[in-house]
Amino acid sequence: MVNMKSTVFKKCKLATAIAVASISVGVISGCADGDRSVSTEGGTFSEVYMPTGKVTGHVQDTNGNPVEGAIVYLAGQDTTTDAGGQYFFKSVTVVGVAGTDGSIGQELVVQIVPPAAAAATATTPAGDSMLSATVTVYPEAQIDASGGGEDVTNPVTTFIDGFLASAGTAVLPILDAGAKGVLRDTLTGEPVAGATLFLDFYGVDDDSSGSTGSDHDDREARYQSISLTTVSGADGSFAFANIPSDGEFELHVEDHAIVENGADDDEGNNDSTINDTDSAPFTTGEGVVTNLGTVAVESIESNDNLNPWVTGVNGVLASNDASRGMLNDDLDGTQGLVIKFSEPMDIAALDANSVIVVTDTAHITATAAYAADGMSVTVTTATAIPADTDFRILLLVDDFHDTGANEHSEGNDLETNAGLDTTVGYDFTETVAGASYIELRLQTFEEPNRSGDAVTVAQESVDAFAVDRVDLIQDLSTSFNDVDGIENAVDLIRFNPALPGTPTAVAYDGSGIQQLNAEDDDDIDTNIDVEGRLEDLADEQLSESGVGGTLSVEADVARINFAHVNASMYRVLVTRSAANIDIVGAQAVSIGAVFGLDGDISTVERDGDIGFEFEPDTSIPSIALILKGVAPGDNVTVVSMDDFGIAVNTSTTLTLIDNVAPTTILQTAYEWGDEVVASVVPDFGDGGELSQIGNNSAGAPYLAITPRLLTTPDWAADPDVAAYRENVFADDTIGALNELFIGNQTDTDAASPTFGDRILSTSAAVYDSVAFAAFIAGDLSRTVGIAMSEDVALTGTPTTTGITATVDTFTVHNDVTQQDDGDLTNADLVQVDVSNVLTLANVDFDGEIDFSAAMTDTATTPVAATGANAKVVIQDRMPPFVSSASYDGDTMTINFNESVNVEAGDQLGITGATITISGDTADAHALLADRSVLTVSLANGDYPDMNRVGIFSAGAYEESGANIGQPGANSTSGHTELSWGPVEDDQGNEWLDYIGTGENFLNTTGLFFAMIDNTGAMTASVTDGTFTDSVTLGNAFTVTYNLSHRARLTAFGIGLAADATSMDASEVAACFTLTSAATIDVAAGTNTGATISANGRTIAVTVEVATNGITAADTFDFTCNGGNFRSAWDSTDSVDPATSTAP
Question: Minimal CA–CA distance to 242: which of 291, 212, 282, 284?
Answer without folding.
Answer: 284
